[in-house]
Amino acid sequence: MSTTVPSASFVEVPETLLKKRKQNEKVREERLAAQVEAKKQRKTKREVIYKRAEAYTKEYLDAEREDIRLKRDARKDGNYYVSAQPKVFFVIRIKGISKIAPKPRKIMQLLRLRQINNGVFVKVTKATEQMLRLIEPYITYGEPNLKTVRELIYKRGYGKVDKQRIPLTDNHTIEKALGKHDILCMEDLVHEIATTGPAFKQAANFLWPFKLSNPNGGWRTRKFKHYVLGGDFGNRETNINALVRQMN
Amino acid sequence: MASRPTVQVRGGEGSSSLPLPAVFTAPIRLDVVQQVHKSIAKNRRQAYSVNVKAGHQTSAESWGTGRAVARIPRVGGGGTHRSGQAAFGNMCRGGRMFAPTKTWRRWHIKVNQNQRRFAVVSALAASALPGLVLARGHRIEEIEEVPLVIPSTAEGFKKTKEAVELLKSLNAYTDVVKVSNSRKLRAGRGKMRNRRHRQRRGPLIVYNEDNGIVHAFRNLPGVEIANVRRLNLLQLAPGGHLGRFIIWTESAFALLDEVFGTQDKVSLHKKDYYLPTAKISNPDVTRLINSSEIQAVVRPAGEKTQRRPWTQRKNPLVNRAILYRLNPYAKVIRKEETARQNKTGHVHTQLPAKTHEAGEAFINTLFAP
User: Fold this and answer.
1) CA–CA distances in Å: residue B194 to residues B141, B185, B189, B200
2) Which domains occur in chain B, in start order?
3) Cβ contact B252:B228 at 8 Å
């Protein structure tokens, strides 16, 4: 009867274990190499982002000064300069969920305004203008300035990733979703929205509809009159910025 | 299998060996064994039912509405407690039960012949794996080899003493001891229904020719004896659990290839029967996965447990670190802005936090006696 327990030196290492060890070594080396590579890439990307942000700041400033210059020039000659019509609106849903007729209901669904105090960026075209006209009694909208766009995206920006609402805590999220449109970071996203770029549709759609609070300081006495008549709905042009300051 | 591994004959003088029969390499299918065992175990049942007339031996009729009683049929007549009592319903005292059990319930289940044979073959293959036999609870720590083969002379044993001696020499007697130690009274009514005791199962002795072996071994508690041509799944996998401890006689072991055939050779005792082929020819999945052929094309493994991303959202307009992470240029902007403000004297400092002193009334209440 051979029931002696063999010592450790007698027991052979099973082949699968040896193979596993070799495989693990290889995987580990590959992973470390990949890490080094990723770090380098991250560094170069960061530089790119920095440069872009710098360029954008200059661009925004230039655009502002240009507008002012043209106005001044025109006034000097006794002429009139009409600044360009807005290219993007920020639309906020004012009315709650109940008692909406089917057509306005559908339009608000299409614009992703499914909840009260939801806000979205909408490109201004003939088509979208007509849509907004139809749902005017239930929304307020206007031309957002750069600060509004930036604050909304930084504070309340969430992206649609895998159909989920993911907070924009890292440029990585944005790059993964919009990298193919050359949008790599928050600043790129802000730029694309504020100056409606070629990928505005994708950028705006990537942004989950903003969930704003009720305005700090309140609505006007009766919400559901047109803004012009002392209420809150409809096109309030640049006054939307003040409202967003209160709601953000 | 190019060359069959051999099995030594133990317990006798001289050492001969036999090649391993093909049955022991058959696929071990626990699902088949369990299903077949379940059905076959039902074949020993005896019918039971309640009396056909039970609960209906009254002429009860409902009194209908208007008598301030429930509308259940009530026993007619008078002069006894029974009159006016409810009858017939399963909820009534003395009524018929819900769904009275019938004798024509399907007591016996037919199982396909090939399935039955598959189960037997699987159970035999399982009996060759010491791990499974141990798991089933047999005390085989000391025996020399599994499957255990004894010389054919054992088929001529006439005395139980000889049988015990043989088992002891093989170190297989501990399994029998286990059985005799486990004999206990059954819990429940089975006690008064001719199933008074319960005990474990011991080894199964498989022989080729009975020259007294059955008489020799049959008095040992837990030991069962079977002819190799008629193997019973209920004995090979009791309870549907694989890995019965089987002790083969030499001639029975040699006969297995005839009884069950091999993958290519037809069985001589079961008409047109070949052993089943496995779905996967190399069942060592770990080895397959770790083979160089597969590892060469496999992508790197994911993490063992998914790490949750940082789930606390921080506001970049307030938290500077997050702001700089998102926009590295923001640092420059801030610096320029503060420099400009300092120049114009329009400094925007943090307001000092307001500290309040506790009011007098509060102090008085706090230190009130």
Assistant:
1) 34, 12, 10, 17
2) 6-44+109-185+195-278 (3.40.1370.10)
3) yes
Tokens of B52: 């056909």
The amino acid that residue B75 corresponds to is: V
Q: How far is CA B140 from the centre of its chain?
A: 21
Question: What type of residue sits at position B12?
Answer: G
Facing residue for A187 by CB, picked from B301, B317, B327: B327
CB contact B316 to A (< 8 Å): yes
Enumerate the residues of chain B whose CB falls inside 8 A of the CB of residue A31. 300
**Does the pTM of the predicted model rise above 0.90?**
no
A139: β partners: A93
Using an 8 Å CB-CB cutoff, list chain A residues near B327. 49, 53, 185-187
Contacts of A186 in chain B (CB under 8 A): 316, 326-327
Q: Token pair for residue B81?
A: 């407690």
Nearest to B54 by CA among B15, B101, B104: B101
Q: How far apart (Å, rounded) are the C-alpha atoms in residues B99 and B89?
A: 11
- Do the strands B246-249 and B148-150 form a parallel or antiparallel pair, or are they unpaired? parallel
H helix runs in chain B, sequence order: 30-41, 113-126, 130-136, 160-169, 173-181, 213-217, 233-236, 250-260, 285-289, 292-297, 320-326, 330-344, 360-366
How many Å lie between the alpha carbon of A31 and the closest alpha carbon of chain B? 9
Closest approach of chain A CAs to the CA of B68, in angstroms? 53
* CA A188/CA A178 separation, integer angstroms: 10
- Regarding predicted confidence, which is higher, B287 or A142? A142
Q: Does A151 touch chain B (CB under 8 A)?
A: yes
DSSP A226: B
Name the 3-class secondary structure at A212: coil
Of B68, B94, B71, nearest to B81 (Cα)? B94
Task: Name the average pLDDT for chain B.
Answer: 92
Least confident of A127-136, B230-239, B305-314: B305-314
- B165 touches B217 (CB < 8 A): no
Q: What is the pLDDT of residue B346?
A: 67
The pLDDT of residue A1: 45
For the residues B299-310, what does the mean pLDDT come to?
Answer: 84
